[in-house]
Amino acid sequence: MLFIYGGLFFALFVKIVHIQATGVVNGQVLEARAAALYEKEAVLTAERGKILDRSGNIIAEDTLSYRLIAVVDPKASKDSKKGEPRHVTDPQTTAKILAKYIQMDEADIYKNLTKKITDSKTGELKQPYQVEFGVAGRSISHEVKTAIEAEKLPGIVFSSDSKRYYPNGPFASHLVGFALKEEQDDKTFKTVGKMGLELFYNEQLTGVNGSMQYKSDAFHYLLPNSEQMVTPAKHGSDIYLTIDKSIQNFLEETMTEVFKEYEAESMIAVIADPDTGEILAMSQRPTFNPENRIGLEDWLNTSTQKILEPGSTMKIFTLASAIDTGNWHPNAFFQSGSYTVFDRTIRDHNYVGWGPITYLEGIQRSSNTAMAYMLEDIGNDTFVEYLDKFGFGKPTGIDLPGEVSGKIKTDWAIDYVTTSYGQGSTVTPIQLIQAMTAIANDGKMMQPYVIEKVVDSEGKIVQNHEPTVKGNPISEETAKQVREVLASTLTSEVGTAKKFAIDGYEVAGKTGTAYIADTDGSGQYLTGQNNYLYSFLGLAPADDPQLIMYVAVKRPQLEAGEYGSDPVSKVFTSVMENSLKYLNINPENVAKVDTIKMGDYVSKNAYDIEQSLIESGLNPIIIGDGGKIVEQYPSEGLEVTKGSLVYLKTDGAITIPDFTNWSLRNVLIYKTMSGLNIEIAGEGYVESQSVSKGLTVNDSSLIVLNLKTPEETFLPPIEENLEVDDLPQD
């Protein structure tokens, strides 16, 4: 016995020594086995970057949602203290009810609830502990979650998830696009851009997941004194657009009304800042809601990815070419009606013309034959050179995917003539906008763009778009003359654009009526009043343009007595007038107000300056407890109107003012200068505040300001003469 037990002990001793020396048992490395049991890794999910407008308003962002899970293993119910089932007890009923709430067939849900999996150890089929429902079970809203929970289905649970959220509904949808959760090869889910900016900038918007490694016991509790190795997630970059939310909303609302009223086949509208080339609004109809893709029929952005025949809007650039080459003779006469090139005859839109008329009247009446005679003086080759300078026939280079270029036809002699009045050759809406910047911007043509900047998760600007001059196709004097002539198309008794006039603002522009090619492949054009593309390309105010706008309506259903300019003008006049007022562009008939020039108040006594400003008719706001002024806004040299707020920052504790009726802009200035923790809810003007006037606070106290939109859409501006660029910086 001693010999036997001694031998066994010796064998055990040898085994232990071997294990300590090699760390291997039965071919398995013990350290790796222990790591597998106790070392865990958790994924830290990265957020997708936001898409925001020029003022930081959210257009697209990730938001909280829920993931649907079904516990199907009966073992889950054994731990229930109340004896209530914690697993799916009736797959058939559960499938029938869930089918009402998620986009998955009842049969597929039932199949998922009853499926078996192969045991990795025994190879036998067994019941999984829980199952999920792929894309259909993700991005569940709180409302749907609550409704499913009300059904009291055993075994149905939810876990927190995220989804792409578009708070504004159909808002520049073909520009922004949409993103969806997609299952990856490793069975994880990832939000992927599928269209528009979400697709084009998918790489910048997509973050990089992080991880957290730690050691736990068999019950998954963190072991004491164990190290946590954290690799933080890198969130996606935020993309700031040049789009202005207010102007875009004006456009969306008006286009929806007109589209419904006239039952048009399609519509397109673009608004731009001529000084910079920034696109302030862009929309089309039909449109869709990126939240659920309802209404999505056409995946192309009409502004950049579709060509059209521009119609008489092209006459703007024929006119500019004539003026710039010295071939514009406004008071000379020509015979209107028809013009023949070899065996081809073109006619004016009324077929017979108006007899001998001046070239100025020809522009006002939108005469095709006037363009043909002017082209004789310009010369075909020179005319094409000018069209090239204006950017037609080639991409603008806008920061959007899939831009097409159109084509200027020059195959036959008649092509030059038809192109001069906008037929035969093709362009894109964004090319018309770019070319019009030269007319509005005294000859300087600006490249259009929609991305203002890209900011990474650490707040660093990784891409910053500055205005780009594409050329000077015409002189400053030519541009001014073109605007004067185009303004007369609205003011002349014979002008075709009288419906586009806006009270208080001088508008300059040109109407267009273009043929639409038949889709039967015959090469023929459609005929009939309802079978044209009606458009307008205009700017305002004419003497100092602040906005350019292009509107086109395809095949509107017009009633007897209506004209193609009716639906187009309803969009243009409403949106342009609202936008000009929103931008504080005063109408011509507004009386001039006295302004006060700001002095240099830094280092001076705040209360002395306060009294002086009050006597001047201004409203000073002291930020701090008084004493020497360390910062002021507006800065020295700027002119402000009486009643404007002037901010004087000093050191010391801050006393809260009465924010009632302050505009959002004034609140943002105060927030930046004071450094206070101010939370803003709503839009418009301050209605209430969470901290009372006169209370002294520190920079960590939370102050909530509730804003509401006033009954009057536009109130007199508090600071008419201050530019956005003059705001104090953080």
From TrEMBL:
Keyword Membrane: yes
PASTA domain boundaries: 592-652
Gene3D superfamilies reported for this sequence: 2.20.70.70, 3.30.70.2110, DD-peptidase/beta-lactamase superfamily, Penicillin-binding protein 2a (Domain 2)
Keyword Membrane carried by entry: yes
An individual GO BP term: cell wall organization
Localization (cell): Membrane
GO CC aspect terms: plasma membrane
GO MF entries: penicillin binding
Signal peptide range: none
Similarity comment: family membership: Belongs to the transpeptidase family.
Protein name listed in UniProt: Penicillin-binding protein
